[in-house]
Specification:
homodimer, Arc Repressor Mutant, subunit A, DNA-binding
Chain lengths: 83, 83
DNA sequence: TCTCATTTGTTCGTATGTATC
DNA sequence: AGATACATACGAACAAATGAG
């Protein structure tokens, strides 16, 4: 199992903001607020909770990876980088 | 060991029907015809016999689980539900 | 009790085709 | 036309449960 369920994630399909950006923003905020971590919810969990598909989830997480905020380990999960 | 080899499974990659649906249909038909069971071939066996990958096999089996036709036991296998 | 092989479960990575905006 | 999103499938690694010995 990966991280806990995160009920702070709310994607608004009607919003002008793209879902992958909404998700990246909310994940980032949750991490910085200490509400998310040290292990992020799995892509499958996020798929269920957000209604988005894996490609979109991965894209949002990819942003946080690029920012150096988290890192992923294949077969394990996505982790908040502690430094 | 799990179930016997099942040479009734034939996935057509050229078909318009998605492989996971083809497999689910053929497994269901084989079970109802009494040709498959009481233990399904393992996921590994099915990957070899169909050329599909584990994710696709699992998805097909998941359909039969949802239908109540079979159930899975971790470390044991997938069994036809007898009722 | 311990080890090992088998089996299902979970997870990330990548690719392709289609649909929508 | 291009970017975004969805659906499906393939590839790979690791984890956990089970049973045999």
């Amino acid at each position: 199992m990966a991280g806990q369920t995160v009920d702070v994630i709310r994607i608004d399909p009607e919003s002008a903001a793209h879902p992958y950006l909404q998700l990246a923003d909310q994940l980032r905020a949750g991490i910085k607020a200490g509400e998310i971590g040290p292990v992020l919810p799995s892509i499958m969990q996020l798929t269920e909770e957000t209604g988005l598909v894996t490609g979109t989830i991965r894209r949002a997480i990819g942003i946080l990876v690029d920012e150096g905020l988290v890192y992923t380990v294949p077969g394990r999960g996505t982790f908040v980088r502690r430094d």
